[in-house]
Design brief:
Keywords: ATP-binding, Ligase, Magnesium, Multifunctional enzyme, Nucleotide-binding, Nucleotidyltransferase, Transferase. Its EC number is 2.7.7.42. This protein has about 1000 residues and is mainly alpha-helical. The protein has 45 helices and ten strands. Helix 7 crosses helix 10, helix 18 packs across helix 19 and helix 25 runs parallel beside helix 27. The chain is elongated. The relative contact order is 0.04.
Length: about 1000
Amino acid sequence: MLPTSAIQAIQENGPFNHAELARLGFVHTERSARFLADEDLAAVPPSLVRTIGTTADPDEATIALLRVGEAANRGEQRALFERVVGSEAGERLVQLLGVSAALGDFLTRHPERLALVEEDVLPMDSYRARLLKAIGADPDADMPVSSCTGQDGRDRIRIEYHDILCRIALADITAPDAADAQPDVSRRLSALAGASLDAALAQARAQVTDHDKVRLAVIAMGKTGAQELNYISDVDVIYAADAADDEVSADDVTAIGGALARELARVCADRTKEGALWQVDANLRPEGKDGELVRTIDSFAAYYTRWASSWEFQALLKARPAAGDAALGQRFVELVEPMVWQASTRDGFVEDTRAMRRRVVELIPKSEVNRNLKLGPGGLRDVEFTVQLLQMVHGRTDDSIHAPDTLSALAQLTDGGYVARDQAAELDRAYRLMRALEHRIQLHRLRRSQVVPTSPADVRRLSRAMDMNPQVFEKNLDAIRRRVKQLHEEIYYRPLLLTAASLSDGQVALTPASAQARLAAIGYRDAKRAGQHIEALTKGLSRRAAIQRQLLPSLLEWLADGIDPDLGLLAFRRLSDELGSTHWFLGMLRDSGVAAKRLTRVLASSKYVGNQLESVPGAARWLGRDADLEPRSGESIVAELDATMKRTDDAAELIDVLRHVRSREITRIALAHVTRVIDPSRVAEALTDLAAAVLQAALHIARLQAKQEGATDAPRVILTVIAMGSFGAGEMGYSSDADVQFVVEGPDDLTDSDLVAAGTTVVTHLQKILNAPSSGIDMKVNADLRPEGRSGALVRTLASFSDYYRQHAERWEKQALLRAAPLVGPEETKAQVVQVLDEVRYPSEGLTPSAARELARMKARIESERLPRAARATHHLKLGPGAMTDVEWVVQKLQTEYAHENEQLRTTSTLTALEVLAADGTLPRTDADTLSQAWRMAWQLRRALFLWKGRETDVLPGDAHELAALAGLITGSEESAREMMDRYLKLTRRARSVTERELFGE
């Protein structure tokens, strides 16, 4: 507001110089002074200039006032203009012009409408009649038909619409408190939208042949249905149609009703010289964009009874007859209302609700997240979602909380004891303020927006329009939104704690039944057990219980947003039992939002990680910093283990250290994986590095044990470990066997038989250390891929190894070498091993026709013999059609055929080889991409299955909940089970086509 001192400093009849205008609130003082001196504003008294200085944007108000004055002078409304600016109505006019340039444009086009600023706001029940009369339709007719159509009719609707809109905006802008006035403004805007729909329908009837054969009801949805409409917004509708008499067929009802609906939408959306109204959006109808535009009541009944998703019933909570045939519209509402209040008991209610929330969040551009009043955190949608979810949960048994609009529903929930009165009052005020602010944003240009602007000029105009100090405007808005977020947690989750802990602090404490219903509605499948966990965490008067009561509202919400809230809450309780007495654990949860949110994500996503955190509880500390989650390099792990081995010769102690280090590091990798700090390729690399480091340390311990048992030659031999399979390819999973072969060497005084005997002793101890369940290291070393398999020698000399592969190896054994890599041993020996491997696996003659036929026969035999009979082939991630084995065999065939010519193909990595094959043209790029995508997804799903279940399996589950869990783990979002399966099956079908062509020539 203008300071009194500034007003007193201005002479009543003196000119307004730049300094005085600046004190009044003008920014562009020179320009505004020039405009105010224009002859078209000669009638403007100094008192009105002072009022202009109090508007949201004095400079813009001045420009708009001059344009209106010029238009009035040209249109012979000069007297009207002078009367308005010379009276109290002039103050209302400039307040409007300072907020809305768009409505200033309307008055410039129609200065004859200036008298509206002298009048009171119109009754809402008059809007329909005014709009219908403007186009020559009878408001009292059962089916009003416009006598004025085409461009002229559309313009008349727009002119009358904006006339009424100006009156609503005037009442809004000049209200003593914008927040207090906000609900009435939205009700008026909703009534105006309904009247406009009726006028558009009257024009549609004038254009559609046989329109009188069909009754059409326009059902308002969303904000329009709840009478919470903005100045500019899509108007969500559903169309219900019926025959006007018994002789009209169902096909005619659909065809004529559809024609009326389409023409109605065009009347509203078409842009003319008078602009457009808004888009009519019918996408909330059954089957969305793909569904029939209009339906009969019987058709709606069939769809909502058999096919509708839960979110559709939540949307129907706001359904209201808005235009057209009122009786037919009421029949629609009476049909769906009972279904709305049973929706929370339907299968999939929680999943559909989460999906709807996810779609809301995904709509926000990252640059707007913290400025989006509607969708951002702590914004309008948070309030609406909280209220609607409480209604859906408790409204099934309490019909006193069925109001469609947010604020009325909030009041009802408060009266019913579901929300504490002080919290409801805060939430009510915050919602009103943000809605009023959203309206001020839209009024400026009458554009659809809910994003707070960033430019200083826009922020100044917006804050002044809300009668706020521009310097603290954004700070105050941030505080409001933080409080809304906090209130959401307190209103929805804290009563659960109060009920469980049998406490009362002036907030709402639910009955046990209500608490279970609320838990079930947000995703807890065993709500009774969840309540018991909450009680165990919060009971008592200890500091630990007090902190848990502070933390749990946020944690319960984050767990509810996770893949399996029940799993997460149980794991959190166990972890709290383990760590609750430590000073750092609860402090970390209280002080690090990142760590707390990550913890809930991993606990609700992975049974394996939850179990690991119980074994390595200190690992929870890493969740606060990405750097702590980064996997350690193989070299650093080896260095740590070496340092321990230099300090002691106690084998039992060394095994304990090895067990601890492996458990700790695999937990770190899993945490980084689930929190998406690293990508899947890094996961495989880190698991392989860890396995190699553990194997190297275990060899040291095995030598030490052999020596202590009297095997004097054992410490003298040196073993080179050749990694095979996924170990050699650097593609390991969490529970992958470490497939290996061993090459032994030693001093010259030992014969080959002595070397083999000593090496076998060491390897036998090694297997006992790593394979025995009692050791707890949980890393199986498998040497079954050695020459002659299980019947062959466990270790061989380099000469024996070379001779076997050069002279005796079978086709499958040579193929297995394509994924072999020496990882542990002397560098010179590893180089010699690679030389032998390359000679065998990359033959100079390439892949001969006979070898190609043998390879195809082997693959066919594997497909017929190794796939488990009980498993669905398409769901087997390793052996299924188009899955990992298919891709690997294609790559290995092409490596055998071309690697002797192309050294870049000499890699053990499947994906690297595919990229080389595509780059050199051996494999078409599209085929290589298909194989790569299928292999990646199958690999990720295998690892996700292990993380989810905590045990190894290669078969995709049939349960939709488990599939959705896997989708969340591999994508980081709640991709539906169906979407994930469709994506996987599509990829593997395409990959199988490539496999059949490349391996079998089909």
